[in-house]
């Protein structure tokens, strides 16, 4: 994957995202839609994985059949909203190794503060996909990728649902080597750091905390 930004314009993704944005969508529907979209986004973010072949026997004959090359990939969820994307992706890639980075946003400075960091071993040999539904200021995402790089990861992708232009610019500046995949690029951030038009607080909407 070489382009820094990929917009996933598939009609199913766009339709489901519209349902998620609407204020009337219930917590359970929001979660269900997020799980469905995460399958489709996982399909896109893994599109160019290196392949090899394995000798297998079908009931009719032997063949060299395609399989994904290399070590199991790593998924890193930025808590807590990242877990909504993580769960869906794990249904598609159940053998992935999983890490968690806990960062909360200081509401005054909008800067990320770390409270948890547990990452899989041998990150340097794995494709590492960092997930967070909302790429807003880009501060938490860039900080999470700093941690993942410090743990040795070299082949990293960032997967989100919504990106703001400000967050995308921040990621491009901090981590030009990390491609970003998103279902939408929205207009802007508001003065509180929320994506506009956005979908509100992704964590609150998926966990029903507001
Ligand atoms: N985090 C969210 O959950 N929503 C936003 O709009 C921005 C950051």
General description of the model:
The protein is of the alpha/beta class and 210 residues long. The protein contains 6 helices and 14 strands. The strands form 4 sheets. Strands 1-11-9-7-4-5-6 form a 7-stranded mixed β-sheet, sandwiched between helices. A 3-stranded parallel β-sheet has the order 8-10-12. α1 runs antiparallel to α2. It binds uracil (URA). The site of uracil (URA) has 10 residues, from α6. Uracil (URA) binds next to α6.
Descriptive tags:
three-stranded parallel β-sheet; seven-stranded mixed β-sheet; 210 residues; alpha/beta; 33% helix; 6 helices
Short description, anyone?
The chain is an alpha/beta fold and 210 residues long. 33% of the residues lie in helices and 30% in strands.
Using the alpha-carbon principal axes, give the shape: globular
Radius of gyration: 18 Å
* DSSP E strands, number: 14
Task: Specify the helix fraction band.
Answer: 25-40%
Distance between the first and last residues' Cα: 38 Å
* Tally of helical runs: 6
Largest sheet: 7 strands, mixed
Order of helices and strands: EHHEEEHEEEEHEEHEEEEH
**Helices and strands: which structural class?**
alpha/beta
Strand content: 25-35%
Strand order of the largest sheet: 1-11-9-7-4-5-6
Bound molecule types: uracil
User: Overall pLDDT, averaged?
Assistant: 94
Spans with pLDDT under 50 lasting ≥5 residues?
none
């Amino acid at each position: 994957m070489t382009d820094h930004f990929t917009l996933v314009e598939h009609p199913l993704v766009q339709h489901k995202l519209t349902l998620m944005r609407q204020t009337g969508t219930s917590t359970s529907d929001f979660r269900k839609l997020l799980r469905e979209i995460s399958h489709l986004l996982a399909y896109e973010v893994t599109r160019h994985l290196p392949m090899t072949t394995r000798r297998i026997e079908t009931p009719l004959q032997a063949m060299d059949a395609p399989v994904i090359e290399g070590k199991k990939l790593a998924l890193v969820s930025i808590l807590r909203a990242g877990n909504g994307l993580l769960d869906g992706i794990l249904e598609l890639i159940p053998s992935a190794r999983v890490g968690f980075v806990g960062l909360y946003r200081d509401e005054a400075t909008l800067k990320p503060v770390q409270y948890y960091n547990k990452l899989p071993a041998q990150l340097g040999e794995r494709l590492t996909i960092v997930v967070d539904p909302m790429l807003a200021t880009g501060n938490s995402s860039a900080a999470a990728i700093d941690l993942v790089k410090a743990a040795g990861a070299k082949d990293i992708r960032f997967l989100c649902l919504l990106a703001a232009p400000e967050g995308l610019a921040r990621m491009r500046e901090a981590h030009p080597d990390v491609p970003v995949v998103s279902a939408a690029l929205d207009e802007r951030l508001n003065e509180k750091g929320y994506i506009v038009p956005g979908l509100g607080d992704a964590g609150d909407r998926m966990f029903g905390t507001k």
